[in-house]
Amino acid sequence: MAESQGVKLLGFWVSPYVIRVKWALKLKGVEHEYIEEDIFNKSPLLLELNPVHGQVPVLVHDGKPISESIVILEYIDQVWKQIPLLPQDPFERAKARFWAKFAAEKLQQYAWKALCSRGEEHERAVKSSIEALEKMEEELNGKKYFGGDKIGFVDLVAGFLSYQLPVYEEIACMNILDSSKFPAITKWIDSFRNHPLIEQELPPKDKMLAYFSKRRKEILLVENQNASRK
Ligand SMILES: N[C@@H](CCC(=O)N[C@@H](CS)C(=O)NCC(=O)O)C(=O)O
């Protein structure tokens, strides 16, 4: 495939931002070279390619670097037109962008906060996660995927729910994704996770449990130290 020449992805194995880009490349059949980064000891290449944030993912296409996972997804969708991720209709497109933004900026952030906080802050974050999930449940109702019959833009952005949220729940002993309360999301998770191309890019659960338990401890420790300094 001529246009897929010179595609590189700088990533980090458990990053939900990276994984959504990997899924998009897989779904579209774009061959690429994957370069694993150590985000705790960033390479000169990463800092050169993403000098503003120094974060992964970075997609490099024909030598040009693109950062920010959602921007990358849109770029991929415009360059490799097969298996479209965003709808063609302008209104439906705007709606898909709206829900992707909601999943990334609300749900994902609340769930992370719920994992990495204690006490009232934790309770508030769990409540906000559940309320955000209720909105996603309503949006999904009746459809197999957020994108309709096929996996689309919103599915890729909300995909972290299917494999990271259960890990957060186990570590922080919390119940956000109650299947009786969220039947549509529960069904969606099942279809999404079991899609052969999605499944291939899911990090091993035991490795995620170990990684996020450690991150949570580190973040809570820093918060305790800051609180005792006040
Ligand atoms: N808004 C960015 C977030 C990317 C991000 O937070 N990446 C993390 C890995 S999960 C990272 O590179 N962290 C290193 C750092 O922030 O210094 C996106 O959507 O791509």
From TrEMBL:
Residues 5-84 form the GST N-terminal domain. InterPro entries: Glutathione-S-Trfase_C-like, Glutathione-S-Trfase_C_sf, Glutathione_S-Trfase, Glutathione_S-Trfase_N, GST_C, GST_C_Tau, Omega/Tau-like, Thioredoxin-like_sf. Keywords: Transferase. Its EC number is 2.5.1.18. Belongs to the GST superfamily. HSP26 family. GO terms for molecular function: glutathione transferase activity. It catalyses: RX + glutathione = an S-substituted glutathione + a halide anion + H(+). This is Probable glutathione S-transferase. Residues 89-212 form the GST C-terminal domain. It comes from Cinchona calisaya.
